[in-house]
Amino acid sequence: MFFAASLFDSLSSPLFWNQPIDVVLYDLLVWFGWIPIVIVILWGITEIWKVTRQEKYNASLKFCLLAIDVPPMTEQTPKALENMFSSLWGSFSNLTWKEKWIIGKFQSPFSFEIVSTEGYVQFYMRTQTRYRDVAEAGIYAAYPEAEITEVEDYASWAPGEYPHDTWDTWGSELILKKPEIFPLRTYTDFEDKISGELKDPLGPILEQLAKMKVGEHFWIQIIIKPDGNDWKKAGEDFINKVFGNEKKHAPGAFENLITNALSIPADIAMEAFGFSTGADPHAKPAQDPDMWKAFKITMAEKEQVEGVLKKIGKVGYKTKMRLVYLGKKGVYDKQARTAFVKGMFNQFAHLNMNSLGLHGDATPKDDYFWQAWTYAARQGRLVRAFRNRSWGIGADAWTLNIEELATLWHFPSITVKAPLVKKADAKRAEPPVGLPIGSDDVDHHSTPTRMPVSAHAPVLSAHQGGVALSHGAGAHEDHGSHVQSHETAQEPEIRLPGMEPSEAPASAHQFTPDEEGEDGLDAVDMGPPADVELPGPPPGWVDDGIPPNLPV
Q1: Tell me: the pLDDT tens digits for 332-369?
Q2: Taking each helix axis from N to C terminus, what angle separates 202-209 and 334-344, rounded to the nearest 10 degrees?
Q3: Can you give the three-state secondary structure of 266-288, one letter per residue?
Q4: What is the pTM of this model?
Q5: Fewer beta carbons within 10 Å, N or C terminal of the chain?
Q6: DSSP assignment letter at 261
């Protein structure tokens, strides 16, 4: 307090300001110059602490990588996956101070990837295990015939240090060239206005990925995190500015403090040189905005306003995109793949809106000798960031809404004929309703027991080279009599002519001549009459027990 009081007295004294200007500036630097330095140091310490806690928290999370075999024939548009991205936003949570600074918790990331392994194209999705059901449900709801399988990480083998003896690599991170409130071209812009047919923008990308040769790999990675809706405020301010409805800015306490602090050099200049570096006291006041500005906007401004309004109307995610091209030495072709990358995402560009570009600091370059010094380091950092699905390495994240994400990552429609995209081999079907669920106490592999049949049930038996029908023991009783017991049915024995008769199993009821049987129901009486001759064997029959023309 004593120091503050002494400092205030010195600054308020006219003698202090009558000193030479270099003495005044030196005293001000000694008294106040340490403040921004301390602020920067404290900010750095807090960021290091937060990153350390987040790394520890991230190590405790469990992730799974899911390979998705796309449906072979689908008429779904990217709108189907737009709904899936919308459902994933449910993982967003408002973090408390304890969760953010003590536990190190952060919003859950999701990674959506398209991978070409020597021309073989596969879709992948990486998520926390706790959100796997949510992600799978979103895909199955739109694509019931898709196949989702948990697999090992395909990128784990990629070398992380370069130069390498066998492999060479190139890639980059993508950023938006304009502020994030301006949208990219989405799938709605690729629909034919007359026929309504979707000219899928993913088709050219998949065709290019299928062109990879043996020993070449091309990976595309889109990492997203659910974010709040604060980014919409910038879009609303832009729209109000275009229509001349800007709100007057009310300075806060901190801004007033900075303004007052900056006024000190102006006062010093006034005392020393007789002029001020501050605002001109005779300047005219700012005029009110044009109330007719809304009727003077150009067609380009109108298109921008409509695009911004459409983008901020849907849920947004913080996004990072990476590309990695790996090739064996002798096959590696950087020049061809660089042109492929630049043209691949140019179809999403809108000159009045936004477009995707390469992030210079993350792109390995060797155009000049000083860039060659960091070429290998950038290669290794890019591959390691891809393998770890890193959020902190590389360019800053930017916002895409669910419509833009569904445009960049979706399954090809029926019109896309990319031959090497992994598709589902079989159709999924649900089990029958009411299917019983077994338990460990039931032996599901025991031999089933035959169902008992009535003694009146007919039994097939062989007789006189043909097949005779027997009604069992009950055949000798009257039709109105009550049957007291049931016997197990015997399997019929069928013999072709010329085959050796087998020993018939013992019947459950042995018929004796003393028993009276009903006419027409006895097995003996079911044969042909004695004066009828049965047809003989077919021509060419050899009585060796093997029918002719029997395939072996």
Answers
A1: 998 888 888 888 888 899 999 999 999 989 999 888 88
A2: 170
A3: HHHHHHHHCCCCCCCCCCCCCCC
A4: 0.69
A5: C
A6: H
